[in-house]
Amino acid sequence: MDKQPNRTGKRPSIRRLPMYLKTLRQFHNAGREIVSSAHLARELNVPQINVKKDLEITGATGKTGVGYMVKSLIYHIESFLGWNNTTDAFLVGAGNLGQALMGYQGFQQHGLRITAAFDTDIALIGKQIDKIPVFPLNKLTNLASRMHVHLAILTVPALCAQDVCEQLVKADIRGIWNFTSEPLKVPPTVIVHQEDLTAGLAELSVRIKQLLTEENQL
Amino acid sequence: MDKQPNRTGKRPSIRRLPMYLKTLRQFHNAGREIVSSAHLARELNVPQINVKKDLEITGATGKTGVGYMVKSLIYHIESFLGWNNTTDAFLVGAGNLGQALMGYQGFQQHGLRITAAFDTDIALIGKQIDKIPVFPLNKLTNLASRMHVHLAILTVPALCAQDVCEQLVKADIRGIWNFTSEPLKVPPTVIVHQEDLTAGLAELSVRIKQLLTEENQL
DNA sequence: TAGATTGTTAATCGATTAACAATC
DNA sequence: TAGATTGTTAATCGATTAACAATC
User: Fold this and answer.
1) A116, A172, A173, A191 — which has fewest CB within 10 A?
2) Which of residues 110-139 of B touch A (CB under 8 A)?
3) What is the pLDDT of residues B136-164, one digit of tens each?
4) Residue B179's closest CA among B121, B104, B126, B111?
């Protein structure tokens, strides 16, 4: 019987996949057809065994003694992440951060298209930001069902995050990419992915502290 | 002999600390003086044993049978993260994302103050964004040494990231919070913290795919 | 054949979870 | 005394690293 590769697995590996994908696309554009895990490892400054294990979870296979087909790796990573089909998303909260994300062209390369933005600020409503129209927040439920959108990027002020979140749930949004610092309460049928800048800052802070104390000990 | 708590440790725990800190500050403002790990756990929807272990790495201690002093926990978390003293930072690249980060008031509560921004865009230079002055990029080396700044937030376009990074290293910047998708090459005396949006998107994508396939199996 | 590199299994390491004695 | 909760040690789980046979 075929052994199934672990298709559920491994948060850390999943987080590393976009990095491989980006490099592989560059290789592909440069005309390279075959690549070894050692080559990718060198390029990205990651241990080679790590690369091999990460690629494994996508179900990609290579040829012993040769390497992987670049095209095949790209295909397997994209399929594994669901980035071969574009997913439409709404952006909720067209402030500074929201506008920054609307301007980020990279999303479309990662299977994500922001089709509309929503805000309560009258100065923004009716405008287009990076070709994305901004609608009043109360139109969201209606448009979500009409446009079959089930993914929302939440970039509103923390204070109204839970409030807006409940509107999203009512609009049958199933995935929320939460850029606010507010932990959202949602029913189990809705997924929240918390994007937490302060977590990154905490990590950096500790590393800097360590670096400084090490130096002082010299 | 005293046993030293593990002060180096545990990336995942470190990333969770800001969340505890935020809640504890709220409790403090509400006049609460004592809190148990179980209470924090309930509030934040985290397993109680997890809370206890996370707090342990900061060196905080409580009273058996009673709980922790809120003030003491805040103190220990802040000290552990180095957030009791404010660190000055430069923001490099005052585009959409850069402006969003300048506007994020939360940084100051996390020991971080952006004292100046840098860009090559003449339209931005000389302006103030959220009270932060924008200087030409070529002034960075000079100002960094004069203002004793060793931390930079990098929000330039990916294409010039490595280039700008090398200028930062020359300016004796020791920590770089990298918001570009470009993996930076730096000497070992410099710390880079990679803030990778596509990693978060990858995670969310996989979780949504799983949710959808589970539902289809019903 | 010799060298390279995957596929796969085993060993190590680190984080999470569980259990329980100590004590307020 | 009884209940609550920390401090601490042990058990489990998962991710990383190592080793090596298979094979192009």
Assistant:
1) A172
2) 110-112
3) 999 999 999 999 999 999 999 999 999 99
4) B104
